[in-house]
Amino acid sequence: MIRGSFTELLIIAVLAAFAATVPLVANGYWLSVCVTGMMYIALATSWSMFSGPTHYISLATAAFFGLGGYLLATGMSDYQQPFWLMLAIVPFTGAVLAALIGLATLRLSGVYFVIFTLGLAEMIRNLVSWIQNNFLGSRGLYVLTDYTERHIYWMLLAVAATVYMLGWLINRSRLGFSLRIIGGDETVARHVGINTATAKVILFITTGFFGALVGGILAPRYSYIEPNQVFSPQLSFLVVIIALLGGSGRLWGPLVGVIPFTILWELVQTYFPNQTTLFLGVVFLVIVYFLPHGVVGRLEQALEQVRKRR
Amino acid sequence: MARAKLRVERVTKRFGGLVAVDGLSFDVNEREVLGIIGPNGSGKTTMLNMMSGAFKPTEGFISLSDRQISGKAAQTIARAGVGRTFQLVRLLPGLTVLENVVAGAVFGHRRQWGQSAKMVALRMMERVNLNISPNAPITELTYIDQKRVELARALCGEPNILLLDEWLAGLNPTELEAGIDLIKTLQEEGRTIILVEHVMGAIRSLCDKCVVMASGAKIAEGSPEQVLADPEVIRAYLGDEDE
Predict the structure, then answer these.
(1) Weakly modelled stretches of chain B, pLDDT under 70
(2) Please, which residues have CB within 8 angstroms of residue A83's CB and are 6 or more apart in sequence?
(3) ipTM value of the model?
(4) Which of A192, B87, B181, B207 is the most buried (most CB within 10 A)?
């Protein structure tokens, strides 16, 4: 019933300490790749905290990410508010949005939940574009700060470490156990005494909080923010694919998926810029056919077989 | 054991135009074993589902120790002290045997956590004669052991009342004998139990009283001997002589 050992936490702490030194040795292109990778680690791990145990596939990441980035940009560009003040505000707006989605989708499960979250993210993107075009006079916003890729990387690392720590604590709690039961059979969960709605909404709010925070942190990287960029539905799919590739059954699964995927994704974008969607489709098929429980699931399976042979 | 008395008053459940349960009333006293019997489709499981909160009654009331539970969510009813098993065994495939069982202790009527919950789960596994490694995957269990896991999970919550939905169905003769003996030991502990069952041998040997349902309505109530000899009950099961 309790998942996540202290050894696991120690390994992650060592990895985080090692990761913190990356900007000291990497710069330019490779630092940029690392920023992207760290963004995916934070987003995919927080996605996994909710969707991993419950099996509710959320495609709302772009909505939270976009909301965070766009709100931060609006505050800085239109209202001259400082970056840190806006960064303190945006995660809570993500959390409120997640709470509203959570309450609206309490009775939805399976494919209906997936479609709802995708539709909602698209609706928000179009709504923001429409407001921007009709009332605010321009399509984009400027986020001008002194923060470089190096600072953004460290901020993302701090968020990723916080997400991981929170996930580790949840895995060791009654809430974490309740999510695994909900994922197994929601009817059983209710009949053993779990308030399934509360558990799901709490975790979804966490996902929304961190999604918006990551969006806010990334805003200075783009400098110029426009809705189609930060609310891109591709981000939602990428996060799901990364989490599934690594394995969403374990908290460290997405971490395993991020490294190979980010490198491959960068290579495809560089050498085959017109075939990115094709690449995503192939990766998704590979996961479905060969790695249904991700790389971590395959590793655990192999270890189990070795143990049985002994 | 805590006092428990379940009262069902004029409960009706409609699904659109279909009346699954029609104005049913009965009481279950503390330490009593009540059998709900009747032909397939007579509304027994629907009644049980209303008692556990899976369905809300269209009309009528259900109360546990004078506290109304009808219309409340399943988790509220579970925490109030109603434990149940399902007609088709519902286990959690990604969890070990111990994790399946301990869920009842962690979230049920007596909410426990950590080592104390684990101890309760291990005790209940032993209580239902589940002689298997607590860390075994659920997929390796025999059918009766799956049923034992489900029963242990329900008992872990230390329920005031236990609802068993065809717990003995699908067992072979040896398993059936063991199953009846197991429920008998629960009865001897003074537990209040409601059984939905088709196995008449079990009904005769376990139940203090029976409610017989046909087409959603109660057609008889009394001791197993009384109701099984009732001509209307025989007709409900076997049909009229000239049919």
Answers:
(1) 1-4, 240-243
(2) A72, A76, A143, A145, A147, A220
(3) 0.90
(4) A192
Average pLDDT, rounded, for chain A: 89
Contact between A54 and A194 under an 8 Å Cβ cutoff? The reply is no
Hey, which bits of A31-133 come out as E strands?
none
Q: Taking the domains of chain A in order of start, what are their residue ranges? A: 6-232
**Domain span including residue B211:** 1-81+161-167+194-243
B61 with B11: CB under 8 angstroms? Answer: yes
Task: Specify the number of domains making up chain B.
Answer: 1
Mutation test of the interface with chain A: which of B50, B92, B113, choosing the one with the most A Cβ atoms within 10 A?
A: B92
B216: left (phi over 0), alpha (psi -120 to 50) or beta: left
Contacts of A305 (CB under 8 A, 6+ apart): none
Domain membership of residue B107 (yes or no) is no
Cβ A194–B52 below 8 Å, yes or no? no
Q: How far apart, in Å, do the first and last CA atoms of chain B sit?
A: 49
Name the token pair of B92: 């959690």
- Pairwise CA distance, residues A145 & A75, whole Å: 13
- With H, G, I as helix, E, B as strand and everything else as coil, classify residue B167: coil
Contact A54/B at CB under 8 A: no
Q: What is the pLDDT of residues B156-184, one digit of tens each?
A: 988 999 999 999 988 888 988 899 999 99
| Percent of chain A topping pLDDT 70 | 98
pLDDT in tens, A122-163: 899 899 888 888 877 666 788 888 888 999 999 999 999 999
Residues of chain B in contact with residue A180, where contact means CB-CB under 8 angstroms, are 92, 94-95, 99
Distance (Å) of CA B127 to CA B89, B124, B153, B182:
19, 5, 11, 9
Size of interface A-B (CB pairs under 8 A): 76
Q: Among all chains, which residue has been given the structure tokens 């399943």? A: B74
Q: What is the pLDDT of residue A310?
A: 74
DSSP line for A247-267: -TTSTTHHHHHHHHHHHHHHH
Give the Cβ contact number of residue A155 at 10 Å: 21
Whether B21 is in a domain gets the answer yes
Contact yes or no for B128/B148 (Cβ under 8 A)? yes
